[in-house]
Design a protein that fits this description.
With about 270 residues, the chain is α/β, with parallel strands linked by helices. It has one domain (about 10-190, about 220-245): Alpha-Beta Barrel (TIM Barrel), CATH 3.20.20.100. The protein contains ten helices and eight strands. An eight-stranded parallel beta sheet has the order 1-2-3-4-5-6-7-8. Helix 1 links the parallel strand 1 and strand 2. Helix 1 (about 15-25) crosses helix 2. The radius of gyration is 18 Å and the shape is globular. The chain starts with 7 loop residues before the first strand and ends in an 11-residue tail after the last helix. The model has no long low-confidence stretch (mean pLDDT about 95). Bound molecules: NADP nicotinamide-adenine-dinucleotide phosphate. NADP nicotinamide-adenine-dinucleotide phosphate binds near residues 31, 138, 189 and 192. NADP nicotinamide-adenine-dinucleotide phosphate binds near residues 11, 139, 186, 240 and 266.
């Protein structure tokens, strides 16, 4: 799936203005989830930004960017994965987000009511009915990914998984390359902890950059990875978007690859 290297993670964002600001500085991928309880906030921010662009004479409307240029992604929580719940919940999410079509709908975790043979055909049905454009999964292991690919009619578009210098699983990147889907790296700043990692700080100092920028550059340089850092201020939003342009040397990348990878923030 074609996603920009840096999108917006919205967990904890409760102000539509943050979302509208992100879009106005250039974000084109918004990531939310049922369980974050903020789909309406994200929807409000998106609608406010689109309305502003459509106002005649508004400078922001000068270049032609529209709803279709933004990827709106959300996730079904583990309670909503039964065959009877998938469709109604996805439609409700679309309503809350103020969109006709969800560009990307994930299974948030392979737990609770998740049963591949029951859950996934309902996602295919949503694609047929044009409620959903792309299907993704999150927090899956390679066996669960194989099974999902097997059962789904739609191609698997993305796997969203934890990836930052303190935690990532190279086998998941190999799997994605083999099957041709995108890896969406969540918590790419280790929830704000990347500045505590010596190897990251050293690389940052060498580039006169921040540890956060280095973490984003490190992740987005890996194929086929895109990131969704969460940020609240315009300063952080802009800095994270620009970070994908930073180029690390092979030695710098190797030094960060070698950081102990044990600190999973969101274990199963
Ligand atoms: N699929 C899943 O199970 C799952 C699980 C967890 C997260 N996610 C997704 O991944 C997204 C990101 O993960 P996350 O929210 O856990 O953490 P994160 O993006 O790794 O880190 C966010 C933290 O870093 C700070 N920050 C952002 N930009 C910064 C910068 N340039 N300089 C210094 N600090 C900066 C933020 O502060 P400010 O807010 O003050 O800017 C916030 O405290 C979530 O929002 C969500 O969309 C998915």
């Amino acid at each position: 799936m074609n996603l920009p290297p840096v999108g917006l993670g919205t967990m904890g964002i409760d102000d539509p203005e943050t979302v509208a600001t992100a879009l106005s500085v250039g974000y084109r991928h918004l990531d939310t989830a049922r369980i974050y309880g903020n789909e309406s906030v994200v929807g409000e921010g998106l609608t406010a930004w689109l309305d502003k662009r459509e106002t005649p004479g508004d400078a922001a409307g000068a270049d032609a960017v529209s709803r279709e240029d933004v990827t709106v992604a959300t996730k079904l929580w583990i309670d909503d994965l039964g065959a009877d719940d998938v469709g109604p919940t996805a439609r409700e999410s679309a309503d809350l987000l103020g969109v006709e079509t969800l560009d990307l709908l994930y299974v948030h975790r392979p737990r609770g009511a998740y049963a591949p043979a029951e859950t996934l055909p309902e996602l295919d049905r949503l694609v047929d009915e044009r409620v959903v454009r792309n299907v993704g999964v999150s927090n899956f292991d390679p066996e669960q990914l194989d099974r999902a690919i097997d059962v789904l009619d739609a191609p698997l578009a993305a796997h969203q998984t934890e990836l930052h210098p303190l935690f990532y699983k190279p086998a998941l990147l190999d799997h994605a390359r083999e099957h041709g889907y995108t890896v969406v790296a969540y918590s790419p700043l280790a929830g704000g902890r990347v500045r505590e990692i010596d190897a990251v700080r050293e690389v940052a100092a060498a580039h006169d950059a921040t540890p956060e920028a280095v973490a984003i550059a490190w992740a987005t340089a890996k194929e086929p990875v895109v990131t969704i850092p969460k940020a609240s201020s315009e300063r952080h939003l802009r800095a994270n978007l620009a970070a994908a342009d930073l180029e690390l040397t092979a030695d710098e990348t190797a030094a960060i690859d070698a950081v102990e990878r044990e600190e999973e923030l969101f274990p199963e």
